[in-house]
Design brief:
- By secondary structure, the protein is of the alpha/beta class.
- The chain has a single domain, classed as Class I glutamine amidotransferase (GATase) domain (Rossmann fold), CATH 3.40.50.
- The protein has twelve helices and twelve strands.
Amino acid sequence: MKQAYRVARELLRDRVRSSSPETLEILEQVRQADVIVVEGSYDRIQDVLEMAGMPFTSVNPERFDKSELRPDQIVFVNCPGNVSPKALHKLEAFVREGGFLFTTDWAVRNVLEHAFPGFVEFNDRPTGDEVVRIELLDREDPMLKTVLDANDDPQWWLEASSYPIRVLDPQRVKVLIRSKEIEQRHGDSPVLVTFSYGEGTVYHMISHFYLQRTETRTARHAASSMTYVAEKGVDQAGMWKYRELGAEGLTTGQLQSALSSNTIILGVLLRHQTRDLRRSQPDE
């Protein structure tokens, strides 16, 4: 999957560069101090950011208590989200004042249920170690339109004991990605949700950003990822780069999963940067 993430980074950037160069320019304005990653025992968002070529500052949960946050930053909290009560108060104030917060998996219970009660919760029906199909509900999103086509069939790996997300307030919580397979097996379908809180925004996702495996559930998933790269519009002259990156040794399923993960994380960063650019512009 590390190799899949490297190939996905190039494919994503090539797609964005050709269809929406202004989007790439916005993403390139992200600075190390803009993105804070709170380390965790299980997820490794920092690895995905590094492989995506995005700058960030990584802190352990103990040091996070002493961190000074600004409302123009984005904070990623890795699963399990075991932070102190002081950190929970800090995160609540950070979002209320305009910050972006992204949490994964067990942090729904350890962070969101305490700092932002009444929005989402763990439904107490943990998953097994399984791979599920996911459905992107917001295909009009600029990043998703750039990367994912109608015939894409992305998958998501659920770690053993991932925490399904129950939406408590459908009026305020928007489901961006869902899985009917998670709903059938574990009661609730959300994979990625978001809600506004004060002046800021919270995102939460079941399982982990760093996907360690996928499955070849169809003949298309089992095919060489070079076929998938060609489907994305890369011409013969551009194929050499992907061969050098090792795409011939990957399946379409592996690359598609890594591309979905990269797209989600860059899409959130794009929303954050676009919002702050609008805020920094003087009123006419």
